[in-house]
Records
---
Amino acid sequence: MIEILVALVILSISTVAILGALTTTLSSTGEHRSLAADDTLLTAMAEQVKNVVELQPSPPAWPTGCGGTGGPLTQWYEDTTTNNTPNIPLPAPLTGTPLTGSSYYPVSLTDPPYVGYVVNLTNVQYPNGSTWTSCPVSATAAGVQKITVDVTSNANITDTFDVVVRYQGDGNA
Amino acid sequence: MPDRRQSGAILVLALIFLLIGSFVVIPLAGLATTNLQATAPFITERQLEYAADGAMDLAIETVRYSATQGYPGGTCGSITTTLNGQTVTVDCTSEAPGTSGAAGEDDESRYVSFVACPGGDTSGCPGQSFLSATADYADFTPSGDVQVGYAVRILSWDVQSANF
């Protein structure tokens, strides 16, 4: 009888350990995949911003004005006025649906594996020495802008990333 | 007849099961740990690369409109900024225009080299740099008028590994 009880205890512990290890592996794999997807999307968006603002043969006019939350510069990146033809389109082949009626960003993605992910461009800032501020401190300081890219996964986890663009044209920005 | 009692057999079977289970659990735990441990360095490396990229852009643009930085024989200085939680210092060095042999270098411009390193690094930046670049500044308009920082060309942009 004691022998059976001891065997049952051993079998129970072994079974729980195996199931626990399987569960942990599955959840950590899922977490890793989610983080990899977030990372890929953040990098793609950052490169898209740099590509559109800096690297096109005929880049858009250098965006100006104060940034920060709700500033006209941030609104240019969010595309508040022409949300059907965004200034910063999503990187191909991604497509999405704007979440508000007044701007393109934040936009909810509609393509696998990012269905339900929300991407936003926020809080554009200018350099002020080694720090960052909403309005350019001088005419020559307007040639560098920092854009914050937010990605919120469908598990409602938000990852934030800053990307810097530099004025490539002649003369002052 | 020999004694063929099966007393203790189930215990032996349970121990065998435990042994087999441990062969499964240990590799699975290792796999889960590796996944979790690998994630943080990947994220940090991406943050470092973009922080260096942004700090380099900031340094290039700062020197561009400076009437004192980047001239041959003069000072060039450094700039430190924090992006994506990573502090990066960019050191710049003034070179003599027209002497480096770099492709496209212009005799009438400032020629400046930059290296980006971990912020606060005191171990010798070039040895620890994760990004280096050279820029050629034209301080004249096409009509010949003097205008500091009228144009800038990036002559080289070399990314080293941020994984250290």
---
Amino acid sequence: MTAPAFSLRDVAVDLGRRRVLEVQSLDITPACVTVVLGPNGAGKTTLLRALGLLVPLAKGSLELFGTARPLGAAGAVAWRRRLGWVEQRPYLFRGTVAANVAYPLRLRGLSPGEIEARVAGALAMVDMLELCGRRAAELSGGEAQRVALARALATAPEVLLLDEPTANLDPASAGRVEEAVRRYARHNGGTVVLVTHGLFLARRLADKAIFLEGGTVVESGEAGRVLHDPQTGPARAFVAGETAN
Amino acid sequence: MTGFLNIILLSLLVSGVATLAGGFLGSLAGLALGLWDFPGRPSLLRLIRTLMGMPPVVAGLLVYLALSRRGPLGVLGLLFTPTAMIVAQTLLVFPIVTGMVAAIVALTDARARQTALAAGATRTQAALSVAWEAWPGMVAAVVAGFGRAIGEVGAVMLVGGNIGGRTRVMTGAIFLETRQGNFSTAILLGLILLAVAFLVNLALERLERLVPR
């Protein structure tokens, strides 16, 4: 039996003295798109950061494909190198588009030839190959988002963590990002954890869905059920509200 | 004329080496203070900010006491040498660069470090990535450090002794010429000092452009 992409047991994250995330038990299925939904402040981004070991856990156990969360800094770096990460407002470093996509590859000490090939491949996946020499500072929001996605895809991560990747994008840009994510998941067999509060995006992409509220998982399961026929009050109210909008 | 040239070259050597040393160490310390939270960091920052305003003559006094014959480093015999002047100026440059770099790094978008770590950077790689982003500000900090070094007179006079042909730099020469009533020479030296500072700043500006936007 394949190990879950992520397995969380009794996990909690504190922000100062406030508990912002508490997950009793959650498994994220490999090789499919899992969408994390919920209202603002539900703990969606915190969950993503916890999976990427970008926030300390107050307690609990977390596994990545059966490997327990490391305690040392070197182990955390190795863990993060198995993941790809795209934020809602991605940060691009000084320099060109190609330099930004090459960044995680240089961290991993790849040869210049391999870096060049991978950068070209990743930029092609997001239809940005023609902009590889452009300065990152000159990009539009949609272009920056696609570069951030290419940067995450360039390392061929085992899991792609996406935080509202299409928020604030025009429909054409959002469509391109969505298509690249779909391609990564369907053709490459990649695992995607996608945070959003866009119900329609979730319905288009998700195989599995997790609904969060108040820092806890209130519902999870097959996307078809959770997104169309939720069983819990908060998820039902969210779906009804989003559909009405 | 040769005397003038020697004075200019010694000024550049002393302040240049002090800026390199103080700038390098200050950049490292500033990066650490700007990036990482550790016990005692607020007190350390307060101390650095206080030292940013340290009168040059106090830095000179400390180095003088350390290097004087009865001082802990007296055995080295460095007092009244260019080396002693470099040490004194490094003491002046270090807190300025440290304080400025710490502030610049703290003001750099926090997402830069977060993005680096998420991309698989080690702590050192993430720090270097932030330094890359903060590069123009870091160059400005080093420029400010050089300005502090080349323009100060108290520390170099105290530990160098303003000895003609050996430890006399431009500020010391201006001081001496003014005392002797040779105002035209003092003014000429002052103009040369400004011109040298301008040219060095110009060169450092080029460094700033090394990192693309």
---
Amino acid sequence: MTALALASFEREAAFRAAVSRAGAEQRRIVGLWSPYPVELGDIGEEPAAPIPWIACLGGLGAAILFYAFIWWTATQAYPFDSGGRPLHSWQVFLIAPIELGALAAAVAGMIAFLIRARMTRLHHPAFDIAEVERASSDHFVIALSCDETEGGDVLALLTRAGAVHSRLVTR
Amino acid sequence: MPSLDDPDFVARREVLRLIAAGAAASLAGCSRPDQPIVPAVADEDGDRAGRTRRYATTLTLAGYGRGATALVVDGRPIKLEGSARHPASLGTTDLFVETAILDLYDPQRLRAPVGPDGIGSWPMLERALVPRLAGSQGEGAVLLTGRVTSPSLLARIAEARRRMPGLRHVRAEAIDDDAEREGARLAFGRPLTMRPRLAGADVLVLLDADPLGPGPDQIAFARAWADRRRMPGKPQRTYVAEPSLTQSGICADRRVALHPALIGNVLLAIAGALGAGATGAAELPPEAALWVASVLRDMRGVQGRVIVMVGRGQPAQVHALAAWVNRRLAAPVDWIEPVDPDSSGHVESLAGLAQDMAAGRVSTLVVLDANPMLHTPPALGFADALKRVPLSLSFATFPDETAMATRWRAPLAHTLESWGDARGPDGTASLVQPMVKPLFDGLSALTAIDMLDAAGPRPGDHDRVRRQWQATDDGRWRELLVAGTIEGTAARPVELGDARLVMPRPSPRAAPMVVTLPPSATLWDGRGATNAWAQECPDPVTRQVWGAALRLSPGDARRLGVADQDVVAFAGLTAPVKIVEGQADGVATLPVGHGRTAGGPIATAPGTLGPGTNAFRLRGSRGGWVSRPVTLTPTGDRVHTPRNQDDFDLDGDAASLYPVLRPGEAMPPPESRASLLGDGATPPPQAPQWAMVIDASACIGCNACVVACQAENNVPAIGPEQIGKGRDMHWLRVDRYEHARGGGYQPVPCMQCEKAPCEPVCPVEAPVHSADGLNLQVYNRCIGTRTCQANCPYKVRRFNFLDYAGADLWGDLDPAPVSAQRNPEVTVRARGVMEKCTYCVQRIEAAKHEADATGAPLQTPVTACQAACPTRAITFGNLADPVSDVARQRRDPRHYALLEELGTRPRTTYLAKIRNAGGEV
Amino acid sequence: MSDAARWLLPSMHDHRAITDAIAGPLVEGQAGRRWWIALLASLLVAGVGAIATGISFAYGPGMWGNNSAVVWGFPIANYVWWIGIGNAGTLISALLLLTRQKWRNAINRFAEAMTILAVSIAGLFPIIHLGRPMYFYWMAPYPNTMDLWPQWRSALVWDFWAILSYLLFSLIFFYLGLIPDLATLRDRKGPRRWRRIWGAFALGWQGTPGQWRAHQRLQRTMAVIATPLVCSVHSIVGLDFAASLMPGWTESIFPPYFVVGAYFSGFAMVLLLALVIRHALGLEAMIRTAHLDACAKMLLAAGSVMLLAYGSEWLSALWTGEAADLRFLAFSFTGPYAGLTYGMILGNCLLPQLFWSPALRRSVPVLVIVALGVLVGMYFERILILCNTLSIGYEPAAWTLYVPTIVDFLILAGTAGLFVSAFLLLSRVIPLVPMYEMRELAEEARA
């Protein structure tokens, strides 16, 4: 029977300590929640997402497509003399694509972020845990999974780390 | 309108009904006259729908006929152009011919006879009129007209007087020529009319004379003058001495501003040098003395090639002396028997009539197309005398001052609605063809006389005119109608001996402050005041619209402590001030023709400004065109006087906008400039490349082109408030500039730039470039960002800030009839849309279609402004054709492009103004 | 005292306190009478502006002071002015983020909100000022029966894309920062309906290290894009004028000059908002005098740059001695618009110089006066840029002065009303100070 040990912390330091201890004792961390970004070293970290690159590609791609479209409308679809300017006035055709490119980069980045962060899941088992509710405001929450038998030690570990509240959930 | 001031309610409703009827009638389209009219250009496919047909006819100014061509589409005359056969038109027009077409459709026109009991009818009028005349053999009856030169009408009046010996015919034109006539009488013992041949004058001396200014002779004089200026060889020189700046003064080579009283002294000085003997103490201010010296220097050795002209503002003695000088110099001047058969003085006959009326010797007064109530010198008491006439009637086109004062008023047909004829200033006769049946139920002048002369036969105007010219067989009649002008009817010059030497009394240096009263350059004697186009046409000197200000010299203004738009009071009148450089000190100038108190909303209340000031009120009992001495006193008020141009002076580098050259001098070659974007697309070789060259030297600022463009392109008049806000719609503006080297006029239409700054900045591609080099504006594509105008260095684009096309300037009158004048070939622009000069693209396309249809080579189209220009200053044509006029003029050493340094490559370019001021300036 | 402590009072060193202080005044708290009065007043003004706009739509641009020469008037000035203000929010937020400025945390949220509102208002004017506003969409590329596409050479089309991109970009940037705070509101006790809404917009944010990581990465990435984007947007606004032929417009200095001006007016507006918000929402503990002091320094710097920009313009005119430029210079200082010129110099260059004194940098009345002075001065500058050039172009015959009408003024006032009322409403439903960033700061301050 595995159990879930939950603990809330009021201070970032304590939270960090708990995380590192859990790491040291090879406890399985199944969840970490903090009200603001916390540096946790390499414990509980997931590989970084290539969000900047995705944004960059999205922006470039959109810009290039848009420029191609402009070129087509100005020189192929309906070419005509405007103030004696060249049909393909690339100097000025560049401007709009740059602007749109920036927007496209943001959109691409946003999408990447939503996917990477597994967002838009309005219903998630984590939301059923009472402690997590306060993790968005003033508590740091850690969830360790352990065998029911060693639940006591785990809770002790967390309390020692400075948990203001901890409990064991068995299922 | 007629009896809106009439208490009778029924009558008022009647009026409204008639207004509606009139509007509806003219809206329903115009019906053709009963008798056949003959187009000037025969066309096999005849009256095809939508086809423009051209008819020769005649319009009059001050009674003198000027040949014209009416452009008629589907029975609607929509535009007037010149008639090449007529010596007073030479194929071109002036402002007054151009504006006449709007009068035809003007909602202010009289629409029915109105009597003492309100709205009447023609039968009612006849019942009131005929018995009184027929009974008494016309005893005590007076027919008052302006100048009549129409042979048919004169014959008709004579016929009527044979039947009614008592009927008197009094002739009094507003802008009279009494001084000229008297001068001739003094010099030659009989009234003669002077016809200068300006083309033959190497030296032209204008003493308070303005041959390039408004008047029946403007076209002929200006053309001759310009032709002489163009001639190779010895350059012509024009001297002007005048009290206030005129078009002639602006175009002059050497000008001196002089008090009108001192003009005589100048002539005395000249005459004295020519051996007129002791001229008395004719003292002159130094600059005038210099000017005279220079005139005399130029007069040597050009015997027979000098003309001295004196203006109507000068007394008869001065005219007489000028006649003597001209004879002495064997000047290229003809003297002809007056075209106007009535040799009595205009003012004098008015005075006589006023006395008779006051004394109750006039029982019936019939005014025919004249407005004595406006222009009669107040001292003659015409208004009071009129009240003593038992039956008075006025045949008038508009409800003018006289029509509103007489017991009866009856609508007179527009010239384009009647048969008739007229003689030009040189005697040439031409026919008046009606283009439409009377739109507002008016009678022609001939029919009006028929009504007086009830006993007489009524063959109809058409037959009378035809009989007058003995056109017995139809072929001959057709020829006459096609030509319009009748060959060989010009007056022959009379053989004359020497002129009697008349010496005007020299006047002292210190002359009192007076007001000179020239005719208005836009309203003439005031009959233009009902015309929205004329009102909105800028004055050639002040560029003021919708009214006239009192012109003062900077010196006098300083002395009085007044600035522009400050109101001054003088001789019981008030007027706002306009300070004019070149106005002589000690003399103010106020054009006549403004200050109408009747005639319709346009005439009486030009917008916010009120009716303005009627300068005729300043005339003395003996007439003349200079007021008695006045004292000007600032009232402390200010009124807004809208103008299309505020700054005339070009200082520093700005002078390059209007280069002025000495004769033979050439423009410096323009330096070429590179462009990052390259030269762009090259036009297809077979396409014509349209271009325009405007000769600044030939432009006299007459504004004919401005109004021609307005009529051709459906450009609306927008009223004084809008102009006051700095908005105007004229596609073509005539700028006036002054700088150290000289000054003059610069007509500015769209430059049709090859590298148009307006085109690439429009987000929706409303302005695009055509293969034949036109800078097109696609109205239905325009969303009104106005970026094009913001980026136009020439500021020639015009924006419909409001619904100008539907603008109602006519008060509570229905403006519907006006829309009948619109050119069906030109879009009427919507609110919020940018518009501009198109080089009359509709005419270009018409020419192309003609070429396609007939397979003939493409005829170079003629733009409206070009067709109008009296001096042929505007040349339009195909640049791709090296032998075209335009291409030739582009090679002229005087050729330059406006703001060339901007690299816009204008298609509209200029020939620089030449000023032959001589070295010693 | 650590750097962080400078920006946060000890009373706010506790996470709960921060959450309560910021989330408290939101919907569950009482709006208060002043809020209602302010809202009604601003809505009234906005309504008047809407009527004035309606009048112009009904009768046409003739209702304004524009004329044949000065075809652009207040509407374009309004556009440039508002887009300038809108420029600052995102720029401030992004720049300070990249430069790791601690004091950013307190002001970036409402600065970004300001951007979105200002840019939206600015975006209205390219439509309002049209002669035929109903066809504004012709500027967008869409397949149409006329087979026409927009004129890509037109600066107005560049504008179209610049504004569009900038507005949507700022919206995303703003929303991204908002997500964790929305989660807070979702989890906090409060009105159910609102918590549902916030919850939906929080997109299931939990605050796991992975989410925080991705969140920070995207925020930094967008900050990197935002900075050049903002500059380009206002450069393009500058190009509306610079990419022309008119004297006084064709100047290569315009784009940078417009960017600085925008940043300048934007910062003035941020300062004003900061003063209002800290007072109205009782956030003196988080938006401290030190923040105001920092903003004041920014204004001082920008104001001095403006002075340099103007100076270089005038000097180059004097130095080159080009008749046209000299005429132009004389016109701006002695012509009918001279008053505006001096007002502009006073507001944009002289008033900010007060901030050399630390005492004045911390005095609220002075801050308000200077901020307002800058905003007014910048509006004068916009008007002058339009009217100087268009009133006295190349052709003296076409010279015409510009006189705005009452309708012009009402439309301008209306935009202010719209801005204020929108901000008031916003202040009730979203935290105008980012809570999670304040918590970070608090932790640091406490350490």
---
Amino acid sequence: MPEQTYRDAIRSALIGEMDRDSSVVLMGEDIGVYQGTFRITADLLAKYGPTRVIDTPISEEGFVGSAIGMAMLGLRPVVEMMTWNFSLLAFDQIVNNAAKIRYFSGGQVDVPLVVRGPNGAGVQLSAQHSQSVEVFYAHVPGLRVVAPATPADAKGLLRTAIRGKDPVIFLEHAALYNIKGEVPDGDFVVPFGKAEIARPGRDVTIVAFSRMLQVALAAAATLAEDGIEAEVINLRSLRPLDHNTIITSVSHTHRAVVVQEEWKPYGAAAEISATIMEGAFDLLDAPVERVTGADVPMPYARNLELLALPHEEHIVAAVRRTLYREAASRA
Amino acid sequence: MADRTSHKENPGGLTPRAAGGPAVATGVRESVDLASALHWYRQMVIARRFEEETERAFRRGKIGGYLHVYSGQEAVAAGMLAELRPEDIFFTAYRDHAHALFRGAPPGAVMAELYGKATGLARGKGGSMHLFDVSRGFYGGYGIVGAHIPLAVGAAYALRYKGTDKVCLLFLGDGAMNSGGFHEPMNLAGLWGKEGLCPLVIVVENNEYAMGTSVTRSSAVTDLASRFNQYAIPNERIDGMDFLTVRQTAARVAVDVRATGRPYAIEAVTYRFAGHGAADMFQPYRDKDEVETHRRRDPIVTLEHRLREAGLVDDAKIAAIQAEAEQIATDSVQFAEESPAPPPEDLHAHLYGEET
Amino acid sequence: MPEVIMPKMGDAMTEGKLLRWIKQQGEPVKKGEPIAEIETDKVNVDIEAEWDGVLARLVAGAGDVVPVGSPIAVIARPGEQIDASASARSAAPGGGAAPAQAASPQAAATTAHPRRPAATQPAPDAQGQVRASPLARRLAEQHAISLQAIIGTGPQGRITEGDVEAAVSARAATPAAGPAPAGPTPAGARDVALTRMRQTIARRMTESKHTTPHIYLTASVRMDTAMDVRRELNDRLGPERKISVNDLVVKAAALALVKYPNLNASFIGNAIRHPGEININVAVSMPDGLISPVLHHCDRKPLWQIAQEAKALAERARAGHLRSEDLTAGTFTVTNLGMFDVDVFAAIITPPQAAVLAVASAKPQAIVKDGHVEVATIMQLTLSSDHRVTDGAESAQFLREVRRLLETPASLIAEGI
């Protein structure tokens, strides 16, 4: 199977959709003349023209709102958030308009809007540029929220997002743009609400999404050296959440560790933990562990930033706790 | 008092307008205007009666939440919508009952929506602030001040993008002009307008108060029309209490915007007789005398005078129209009262276009 | 909607079998009327209606096995409409994905009623909570191992899956781990199905023998004085409050337990738990087995009250009308085979108790006193006790105290009156 980078997977999906459907338009800051801050939209202005590749002024509330208006009238705008931190400026538009218009109009109008961009932390961008925003949006009925972890995920989910009728929060990660992965040929799609078993196992279930999937897989490899076989779930989709895959897995392993980059209180892991409790309480041998980022604004200093993020060893330690094997370790 | 002089700022190089004078607008298409004005007079009377009925229903506890009535401002929406084609679209904020009616929504469906019934315009899902009638080009109905403005800008873009010559009408209030939600999309409108990609007719319904704060106390620059100059959007100010003036302006502007795909802003100075919303009963921010003064400029009465002068109505006709409006309002209430509430399964309906 | 639930009729009961409906669907019922008969671990019991009304819907059928706390019927009170949906539990908007497993909301209101135990609580193991993961609890139940008998290695003494598995392996490693697997019934032989009571006895007694190290001590008690005192008391007290020999033993045991509390305690894996009460199970023989209802606070009740309650308990037991409080919180057992002329016997401890006192028949025997032979009425008591909680010397002291109290019965009476 051919390989692509995460970046190219997204880019090729965008191009494919723009070729396929003339109602798809792109909007965002510096996506055109500047070629895109992460070069996802490089050369697209030249290819599709300024009516379809719109460089916007710095005005998230204004251009996200305009995109919603376009979507209401039948276009399929794909808005690039330079980073998801800036989406907070458009929060009212996304939450009060995009998520709700279909509902409070009694179903008279769809909002097929996609907002995409890099989410998360890791390159010393400090507190205001390092947030993970999934929880703010996954909380809201009317939105779809997805977080691809692999190039194949990115391509398949983006197609589903653009072709669908509902507003989608598409959370990429800057640290993933360069990773490579196998991407199937042809017009495959990844549906929303279907998690993937990235690594089967029997001793513990590790649930992760976005960049944390890679960290979880690394932890699983380390644990395997000690004879602990972890099953790793790549969520892909936060809203809707694939309850079935999670519960089925934990029903067999009897223990779970959920990993997220973001702050612990009220995070995605809290939701997933509650889901596991509701669906597999009797079968749990230990409380669900949450491995998360530190509960502080992201510091600038590199060593502190590293301390603020979850790493492989945190996941390994959490797994051991669920197995009551904290003391044991390989000689 | 309203200033009737028009402003003309055309940095984009459009054809200059003839400046209107301070007197009541008269002239060119008067006879044609007046004939169809009778139709709109009737519409305005119905809208006024309807709004009075909604207030009554609110006081009786039949309508919950917020209720923002349009009484006193009818000439603005009627005049603008009179010049809209059926295929054109429009957006407004939450003071939207009259807009829905003027566009042809059945009064029963509008009242039923206020009552929260399944037969309402939005199936009871939206209420007073979220009337939607997409089949008639009415795209809502929004509760956050100023937050509907970018939607209209984007919608206008979409109309041009699709190669149509449709126009998008955007109603907003004087208060919305001070929100961030105004500034950003207006900049986009001006920008995209330069490419002919924003056929947006912007109507500022300046009723002199943003909720309970007057324009003079909330706006650093009170010449609202002139503020569109910052966005390269041509603009003028008109008397929003005179239907004929509004309509004439609308006709002229619609032709222009449709032809060029560039936005245009009209500040219509008007007045609302009721409080901001139903809860605003005592209106501590303005004088009873002030309200009375403005009542003497009631747009319905003004138009009635003009129609009488032209011999198009007499006492009998007026009475008949009033009786008809009374009947329509009463019928709409009865329809709403007798309609069922939305079924419980509607709670989860209409959330997503696609289930996963 | 007033639901009738399967009541909890014993500490370890998790489910019961609905034997038959006494009232049919649609019949009016009055408060206190029996509406169904159920078979539990210990006993067959009638369930009574708690409200006046109509037996609107039968949720379980004859022969159904229903978990404790689950509904078996619905009674519509006068003026109430029957809910079309099976249960009102999922009425909350945004109802969750997992259907409610807990008992109906009525359960909270009915905890005050002695017949309706708080079915919303998970089955506490004997007296109080044991920390164990949900999975561990499940496994322990499946393997019929009491959590009391397992040592928990998790945080705060939590019993984990691993701990249960270790206990299961340990048990399997001991010889005679279980009954021989049954093959086909040989010709001429006859297989009789086990009743719930028999099943429970089989399981509990086997578990006790496997997990509790028993020691046995026998003492011979001279009952002459006690018999005389008893006769005198019964003449005065009248037929309703007749004191039996067993009542004397129960009271003696209760007072002795005050002095030797370890015999009243429980081994809970990492500690010895003292319940703080002295509640004695008194074995009552039944047509198809044995049941041991509880006399509460025996140390504090006068002899005549113990006699009266013991009599009432036995009657209730035989009539199938035992209440759940009659079957819970026992801390010590007295079992009596004296009526069968047994000279001496040793009983099996009922987990999680620490001891049981077996009372044999009181008969005239030749004894040696001051160098010559006399006739005395001798009754042999055999104490079985748990060597994890006590030892031979302490058990012997307890037994000696019981004997002292029986041989000088004035102290039995004086303590209580």
